[in-house]
Design goal:
Radius of gyration: 29 Å
Structural class: mainly beta
Number of helices: 5
C-alpha cells in the first residue's frame, strides 16, 4: 500500500476541546469544541415534556441528609466548592485544605460498605466509594493510604496484577463500615498538592452539594456574602448592539455600601441581549474564591431569571460550557456565568424556565431607562446585590447636511433632545449640547461650525435616552494620499460582523456586499468613528461554501477604493450532521446526526502550519470522527494524534 493511502482515524469525544494532529512538521489545529451557539431565534423553547424529563429526576433528594457526618476528625477549610469550574466539567465534590499535610484521619460519613476502590497515578489518585443502604454513595479521594485491612487487600490485588493502577468493585459483605469508622488517611495522590476531596452522590451517581448536609455545613461557619467583579452584555442576534457595537461589552463594578454594588457607566442596549456576571463567594474563613450558588435577575423589580445549583446530572457534566460563558473564558476574561438559559441547556438549575429565559428583548419593552438588579446568594443566605441602570434603545437615524460653515441635522423617526459634536484633528473630541441651543428650521437643527478640523461627527439623543449611530462629515480633505481600505471579519454565534477601516476619514458611508452560494446582500453598516464602519449579516444554512466580502468607499475627498475578503463556511445542522473536508482531501471531520445542540457555521483557515477549523468553542452532543491522510514522504514512527484540554498536549492512544 502506498504510504499516501495510509490514514489515521480517531473518535473525538463529547467533551472534546482543542485537538491537533501533529504529523512531522505538519500541524492541523482544531480549536476547542466546547460551547453552545444559539440559533437566530429564541422562539424555539423547551416543550413541557422536555422540561419535565430534565427536572423530574432532581425534584427531590431521596436520602436523609441529617445522617451524613463530617468525614474527618478535625475542621478544615474549603478550598474548592461543589460545582466549581474544572477544565471541562463541574467539580463533583468539595475540596478541603490539609495545610500541605498528609496522614489525617478520614472517617466514613455514613454507615455502608466499601463498594469500589480506585487507584490511579492521575486524577483522584487513591479513592474509596462507600455505598449506603438507600443507594446513595460517598467518595473519598487523594488518599495517602487506606486503613490496615483495606490496604492489605489492595496490595495483594496489585501484586497479582503486577501493576499499581487498580479498579475493583466489592460485594456488601467484604468491607462493611460503620458511621465514623476510620477508612483511610489524607494524602497527595493523583493530581494536585496534598488535600482531601469528598463527594455525595445519588442512586444514579449524580453529585449533590455536601454542604446541604447539616452535619457537614455546621463545621463550616460562613457569614461572607458573594462579591461582584465584572458584568458583561452579549449581543445575541445580528441586529443587537451594546454601546453601539455588535460585540461583547464588559465593565468592572464598584462596591458602594457593604454588600451593595453598582456600575459607573450606563450601557445602551438594543435587540436581544444576554447578561453575564463574574462573581465569587468565600466559604467560611477560607480565602479561596468559589462559584456563587444562587442568582436572581430582576428587570424593573420583575423577576426574569433564576438559577440555583444544588446538584447536577453527571452525564451532562460537559454542559458547564452552557452555565459559564466559554467564549469569555477562552478569551482570558475569566469565569462569567450566563444569567439566561441558552439554547440546548439541559441543566436542572433554572426552575423549569425554558430556553431564552433571561434574555433582554429590548424591542418588546419601552425604550428609555430601566434598572437591572442582580442578587447573588450562598447556601447560608448571605446576599449581595448589583444595580445596573440601562437604556433600552430603539435605534433611530439622523441626516447630516453640510452647507458652508454650518451643519443641518434632522431625524425622520425620532425627536432629538441633545446633539453631541465630535471634532478635533482626529474627529474624536465629543461635546454634548441640548438641542434647544441650536436654531431649528423646517425640522432641522442649524449648527454653526467653529472647528478648524477636517472631520466633524454628530450623535443625537432623544428624550428617553436612545442614541443614533454617529454620522461623520469630511469638511476638507487631509493632505495625505494614503487611501488604504481594510476589512476585518468576525463570526459571532450565527452572525457575521464586518468592519471596514481606513487610515483617512471616509468621505461618505462605504458600501459592503456579502456574497454566498445562495445570495448577494448589501449589509447595513454604521459608523464607529470617522475611520471605521461596521455591520452584521445573519447566517443561514444556505450560506455554504465561499463567503465573499466586497467593500467600496470614497476616502479623502473623492478617491474610490475597494477591498476584498473571503472565507469558506460550512453550515452543519444539529439534526443532519455533516462532513467537512479540506480541499486537498487530506483532512476530514465527520459530525453525526444530532451531534450538536444548534446549527453551527464551520470555517477552515489555512496558514503556514496547516489548517484550523473554526469556531473554536462548540459543544458536542455526540462524538465526532477525524481522519487525516499521511503525506507520502512521511517517515514511519513520526505520527501522532494529540489532544489539548487547555492544560497541555496528550497523545491519544
Amino acid at each position: 500500500m502506498h504510504r499516501n493511502d495510509l490514514r489515521k482515524t480517531k473518535r473525538l469525544g463529547r467533551n472534546a476541546a482543542g485537538v491537533r494532529i501533529l504529523v512531522g512538521c505538519f500541524v492541523f489545529a482544531l480549536a476547542s469544541l466546547y460551547a453552545i451557539f444559539p440559533s437566530d431565534s429564541w422562539n424555539r423553547t423547551n416543550s413541557h415534556d422536555a422540561l419535565e424529563r430534565i427536572y423530574t429526576p432532581f425534584d427531590s433528594i431521596r436520602t436523609n441528609l441529617s445522617d451524613y457526618a463530617w468525614p474527618l476528625d478535625r475542621r478544615l477549610k474549603i478550598t474548592s466548592a461543589f460545582a466549581d469550574l474544572r477544565s471541562f466539567h463541574f467539580h463533583a465534590g468539595t475540596d478541603f485544605s490539609t495545610n500541605h499535610r498528609k496522614g489525617l484521619n478520614v472517617l466514613a460519613s455514613r454507615a455502608g460498605f466499601i463498594w469500589r476502590i480506585s487507584i490511579s497515578p492521575y486524577g483522584y489518585g487513591k479513592m474509596l466509594y462507600i455505598r449506603h443502604p438507600d443507594g446513595y454513595t460517598t467518595t473519598y479521594a487523594h488518599l495517602e493510604r487506606f486503613n490496615d485491612s483495606i490496604e492489605v487487600y489492595v496490595k495483594q490485588l496489585q501484586y497479582r496484577a503486577e501493576r499499581y493502577a487498580l479498579e475493583v468493585r466489592l460485594p456488601p459483605d467484604r468491607f462493611p463500615v460503620e458511621k465514623g469508622a476510620l477508612i483511610a488517611y489524607t494524602g497527595d495522590t493523583g493530581v494536585g498538592e496534598a488535600h482531601f476531596h469528598f463527594e455525595i452522590r445519588d442512586e444514579q451517581l449524580n453529585p449533590i452539594d455536601p454542604l446541604l448536609a447539616p452535619g457537614i455545613a455546621a463545621m463550616v461557619p460562613d457569614d461572607s456574602a458573594p462579591t461582584f467583579h465584572e458584568i458583561a452584555f452579549i449581543p445575541l442576534k445580528a441586529n443587537s448592539s451594546v454601546q453601539g457595537g455588535n460585540l461583547v461589552w464588559t465593565s468592572g463594578v464598584r462596591r458602594v455600601h457593604d454588600n451593595e454594588y453598582a456600575l459607573s457607566s450606563i450601557p445602551h442596549l438594543s435587540g436581544s441581549i444576554g447578561v453575564d456576571l463574574k462573581a465569587f463567594d468565600r466559604i467560611g474563613a477560607s480565602y479561596y474564591s468559589n462559584r456563587v450558588n444562587d442568582y436572581e435577575l430582576f428587570l424593573d423589580d420583575s423577576l426574569v431569571f433564576v438559577s440555583s445549583v444544588r446538584r447536577f446530572p453527571f452525564k451532562e457534566f460537559k454542559q458547564i460550557a452552557m452555565y459559564y460563558d466559554w467564549g469569555l473564558n477562552k478569551s482570558g476574561k475569566g469565569y462569567f456565568q450566563k444569567l439566561y438559559v441558552d439554547h440546548g441547556n439541559q441543566l436542572p438549575f433554572y426552575n423549569r424556565q425554558p430556553e431564552g429565559t433571561g434574555v433582554l428583548e429590548t424591542g418588546s419593552l419601552p425604550e428609555g431607562f430601566h434598572t437591572l438588579r442582580i442578587v447573588a446568594k450562598d447556601l447560608r443566605g448571605n446576599e449581595s446585590q448589583l444595580r445596573v441602570p440601562v437604556v433600552f434603545s430603539h435605534p433611530f437615524t439622523i441626516e447630516v447636511r453640510p452647507s458652508g460653515r454650518k451643519l443641518f441635522v434632522s431625524s425622520p423617526d425620532s425627536t432629538v433632545s441633545s446633539l453631541t459634536l465630535i471634532t478635533g484633528k482626529k474627529g474624536k473630541s465629543p461635546r454634548r449640547y441640548p438641542a434647544s441651543v441650536f436654531a431649528s428650521k423646517g425640522g432641522s437643527y442649524e449648527i454653526p461650525l467653529r472647528s478648524t478640523g477636517s472631520v466633524v461627527g454628530v450623535v443625537a439623543e432623544n428624550d428617553v435616552g436612545s442614541v443614533s449611530a454617529p454620522r461623520f462629515v469630511v469638511l476638507r480633505s487631509p493632505l495625505s494620499s494614503n487611501t488604504s481600505l481594510s476589512i476585518r471579519k468576525e463570526f459571532s454565534r450565527d452572525f457575521l460582523v464586518v468592519t471596514v477601516s481606513s487610515s483617512l476619514p471616509f468621505t461618505m458611508r462605504p458600501s459592503v456586499w456579502v456574497s454566498t452560494a445562495g445570495r448577494r446582500e448589501l449589509i447595513d453598516i454604521s459608523a464607529l468613528d470617522a475611520n471605521r464602519y461596521a455591520g452584521t449579516l445573519t447566517m443561514t444554512p444556505g450560506d455554504c461554501g465561499i463567503v465573499r466580502i466586497q467593500a467600496t468607499a470614497d476616502i479623502n475627498g473623492a478617491t474610490r477604493v475597494e477591498a476584498f475578503d473571503e472565507s469558506s463556511v460550512y453550515p452543519i445542522t444539529a439534526e443532519a450532521g455533516g462532513t467537512i473536508e479540506s480541499a486537498s482531501g487530506d483532512f476530514k471531520i465527520v459530525f453525526p446526526t444530532n451531534g450538536f445542540y444548534e446549527t453551527i457555521y464551520c470555517r477552515i483557515e489555512k496558514d503556514e502550519n496547516g489548517y484550523t477549523l473554526l469556531p473554536d468553542d462548540i459543544l458536542l452532543r455526540k462524538p465526532a470522527a477525524i481522519e487525516y491522510r499521511l503525506p507520502a514522504d512521511m517517515q514511519s514512527g513520526k505520527v501522532g494524534l494529540f489532544f489539548n484540554k487547555g492544560e497541555g498536549w496528550e497523545l491519544l492512544d
